[in-house]
Amino acid sequence: MTNSLNKKQITELLPHREPMLLIDELYDIKKLFSAKATVNVKKDSFFVNGHFPGQPVMPGVLIVESFGQAAAALTAHGLDKSTYENKLVFLMGVEKARFRNPVIPNCKLTLKIEAIRSHGRVWKYKGEAFVDDKKMADAVWSATIVDKK
Fold this sequence. Notes:
CATH topology: Thiol Ester Dehydrase, Chain A
Structural class: alpha+beta
Number of helices: 3
Strand order of the largest sheet: 1-2-3-5-6-7-4
């Protein structure tokens, strides 16, 4: 099993597509345990013009979405394909999310995620987001794998 996935390989695991596919790379993968992900926050990202005009900031909910996508890719990558094909991963809850510094376009947001536990189809994760070595956000969330309808 590879230790890194590019955006094309991520699209084989996740149903997300542009502009909502936020993660560009998944790497340092420890099967079903942890990984790092890259989100290239660009000046032409879809949210820039409206959040906020003249002073763009990546919305916190999109940082949480990025965490969720990275966790879903980590989990799908570690499972047998029959377990995740024709399935979706839905966010169930966010227990804690802290936004410590604004994420400004033209940066590389690095996510460090970890699966805390799993019980059946329910998984719990934690993550931290950094630009360079500065912590921008952190969160704890849970998700479930469900059948596509």
